[in-house]
Amino acid sequence: MKDGGLRRLTGVGLLSVVFLAGSVVVGTVSAKPASGLDRVLQELWLEAGHPVPEPCPDEVFLRRAHLDITGTLPTPAEVKDFLQDRSRFKRGELIDELLACDEYALYWSLKWGDLLRVKSEFPVNLWPNAVQAYHRWIYESLKANKPYDAMAREILTASGSNFRDPEVNFYRSAHSAEPEGIAEAVALTFMGSRYEAWRPDYQKALASVFTNLKFKKTAEWKEEIVYFDYTTPSEERRVIFPGGKAMTLQPDMDPRYAFADWLIQAENPWFARALVNRVWYWLIGQGIVHEPDDLREDNPPIHPKLLKCLEDEFVKADYDLKHLYRTILNSKAYQAESAAGRIGADLAILQYNLRRLDAEVLADALCQVTGTYEEYSSLIPEPFTFIPRSERSIALADGSITSTFLEMFGRPSRDTGMVLERRDTSSPAQHLHMLNSTHIRKKIESGSALKRIYGNGKRPVEKLEHCYLTLLSRYPTPEEKQWVQKSTQGKPWNHEHSVDLVWALINSAEFLYRH
Amino acid sequence: MKRNDISSAMTRREAVRTGLGATAALWAGQLPGLASESKPPLVERAKAVIQIWMWGGPSHLDTFDPKPDAGYDYCGAFKEPIATKVDGLQIGEKLPLLAGQADKFSVLRGMTHGINGHETASYMVQTGRPSGGGTVYPSLGAVVSYFKGYNAGYDGPLPPYVVLTQPQGRFSECGFLGPKYKPFATGGDPNKTPFTVEGIIAPGFSRQRQEERKRLLDGLDRLPWRLTDHPLMTTHMAHREEAYDLILGKGAAIFDLGEEPEGLRERYGRNTFGQSCLMARRLVENGVRYITINYKGWDTHKQHFPTMNRKLPRIGPWTGYPAGGSFGSRAARFHYRLVGGASSGAPPRCNGKPLGTGGAATTERPSAHSWPEVDFPVVRWWGPPIKRARMSSSVRSIPGI
Predict the structure, then answer these.
(1) Starting from the edge strand earliest in sequence, which strands make up the sheet with A160-161, in order?
(2) Is A461 an interface residue toward B (CB < 8 Å)?
(3) Predicted ipTM?
(4) The whole model's pTM is what?
């Protein structure tokens, strides 16, 4: 996974030593201080009369950073290395390492796949090869850290074949090919806003951008060309987009360019805001505006200052997504202990929130710790998508390819493109499955990665330690050792004890949740 | 519309026109023509529905709407439909057990959905809505689960919506209602002993081992201790307890078909489908509101008639043969409705290929695809005959909403 670039930030680290010389340093600190953001956070805590939350311990940070940035559990070796590392800047360094690895792009393609409704059928009908092309485009864009404004512009102004110009699939995934349907998708995706709640003149203005956007079939099976139809005459139009000034759409120009120009500019009230609010929701667990994609005047942000700070940071960095992630991940909010009980939304927004693992991440984590695979197959012709068994669940490109497990744990069916369609709520069925299903039992009993735990030649205490490092990314505490010892009721440690230990840890909230 | 407003005097035609469709059939407890002297109300509600979903599905010509005069190209081997207990109603020759109970069900031959693909057709029949548009609607079971489940005070030991044994796939049953309303899919095979219901019954695990494991977990699961007041942890622990209520409590007994008399199990047919039907009945008796039996294997692009010869006789005993026997009495006690297998319809012609046993490469009746011009029958148990109901309104109105 992460190779290279390990210590390339030493220079930055040195700079921050100087910067931080005057402040009290608790635990380890980041290589790049998110000072602007942290200052705003401090102010907000002060205003609320709430003490700055304690920073989380290293092992908690390590686990959550791995899961949040890459959707992947750390290996026991990675845990040991990190916990042994005495550097004060190891958290920031880890964040940079994780942002640089392929799993970052893979995991975040999954989240973007939800928003862009990447699925081959029902109710979106992209069809399998277009899904693969579109997913690949998203993945490559994130991997190259393509600036978000460029990504949005490429999508908004896309024309061409659904197979060869994958970003046109945005238009094919809208709820309808009518201008209003496309406007709805554009408003939700790039403005974090619900078109149906707009004033009629705004609705009309945005829909008019897509009036001459057309679709046509080709001789190739399921190929579709998205194009701007210059042959249909249109008149010069004066339009006003929400919160903007009146502008003129020229009849001989594809108005999507004019719209993209209006949308993607520092002064635009929607574009950067919608994105940073979503990213905050994804990383911290609460949107500054709730729901994360329902920005509107009468649904104000709980902390406007915080939202503004992130927005400015993002725009100043030329819409650099990784910079935004880095800023948030290095902040006191992200690195805070998660709240121990129920707290108000105004405070919950300011610190890391306890959450269950995403369905796909959980499936992968189970495979990783046990050394097993999930098998996925596609029901959708044609061509049938083949998914090698080594493929990770977070790499599933197609929202139509799923499993009972993934659905049970809240994989969204990607029907709406809304962030909250992905669910991380608990249900009794999930517990039945984890506690007692054949699926999990087989993994625990026959997983190749567990041989080390089950095999002979290790002392029980070593097995126990390995178990904790693998599953919970930390060493067991003395009380835990004691409890496990006690559970054998005086009998010598046997295979069944090992299996039961793995089973118990897999079913512990600490495994199932990010905290 | 309120069901209770409809008087028993309402005519069939009116019921259909007002969109009642199959409602009456499915949620009504006793219906005219069934119960005898005293005039029972038309619209007493049933408490549960068993839906038999024959994925594929069987051709109407082979089952409930035979057309013997259409000739060999259409009828293939099945050219002699049989009379039923009801005058003038003929059904396929492979369904003698159903013929003997025809007074207990009605056949809808007038339904059509005009859709030419499995997934979209199923969606239509399951949800009562055409596919397309941005909103994905919930299936009937999810709707019943919404209105009759936990929100409505349901406190049965099992989830209110259960699927035997595999879920639909292809589209999400819960639609916009969200995963809370997804069915509990049992997995396993009720024709095997034990019926390993996913998550509830783990073969080879003694109760003692389960209890030991639980103790270990209770001791090691530290996060809920540390975050005692966190709502997510409270829910987490509550849901775990619910799960254990099934694992160590009632669940195992409900799914144990060994509690049924051997003779009854034989009558239902010693195959996965037959035992699923018996299981469905037990589930109704334990309060489950909606059960879907997913019966796969009706998508016969090849080997159609041999497959039908094998499979059709299995759908006879689903009522708990013999006629007038246990099905009737137990159903009356628990007020449930059996909704029989709707087929997806079929292009009625068998592609002009040689029929009969056919070689492996022979495409016989491609009953997979529905055919707009073809009406296909839906069997309802214990309902008045209703004809020409529109699919969407009928399907939507089944749970009476």
Answers:
(1) A160-161, A224-228, A213-217
(2) no
(3) 0.89
(4) 0.81
